[in-house]
Design goal:
The chain is α+β, with helices and mostly antiparallel strands. Helix content is 37%, strand content 16%.
């Protein structure tokens, strides 16, 4: 995936490159002599509020996306960070990939509702038998009044 250009989330949802905010800083960790001089850490931010790309989606998908991302927003923006590579270009690609994954998860339809079922007769009998065995073990530990214990 290219490090610049439109961000293709789905066939219907493409984020314009003008809506993406990039920020670069020095990353910690391995990097040799260039670690103190190269801004390889990447922060990619996208603000859904007022996004022209988001406005092109149907209203139901807009609401789903904003509702699911509500808890992940940092000052109104979705922010992803990448600093695992030594090269800024690779970190930019990694940040774009992470943002795409996060937006696809937010746009995904909800899973089908689970239909509750009753436990089988055999599972109920096994559970009750286990309870009887456990009760018997605990009953054997009790101190009897006639055993001279107080």
């Amino acid at each position: 995936m290219a490090a610049d250009g439109p961000l293709e989330v789905t066939a219907d949802f493409v984020v314009d490159p003008e809506e993406l905010r990039w920020r670069f800083s020095r990353a910690s960790g391995p990097g040799g002599q260039g670690v103190n001089t190269t801004d390889s850490r990447v922060e990619l931010a996208w603000t859904p509020a007022g996004s022209a790309s988001l406005a092109r989606l149907p209203v139901a998908l807009q609401e789903r996306l904003t509702a699911r991302l509500a808890g992940q927003l940092v000052q109104g923006a979705v922010v992803v960070v990448a600093s695992e590579h030594r090269a800024q270009l690779r970190n930019r690609a990694a940040a774009r990939d992470r943002l795409v994954v996060r937006l696809r998860q937010a746009l995904a339809p909800p899973p089908p509702r689970r239909r509750g079922t009753r436990p089988t007769r055999g599972s109920v009998e096994r559970r009750l038998q286990g309870k009887r065995v456990r009760a018997g073990v605990k009953a054997g530990r009790r101190r009897g009044r006639d055993a001279g214990w107080s």
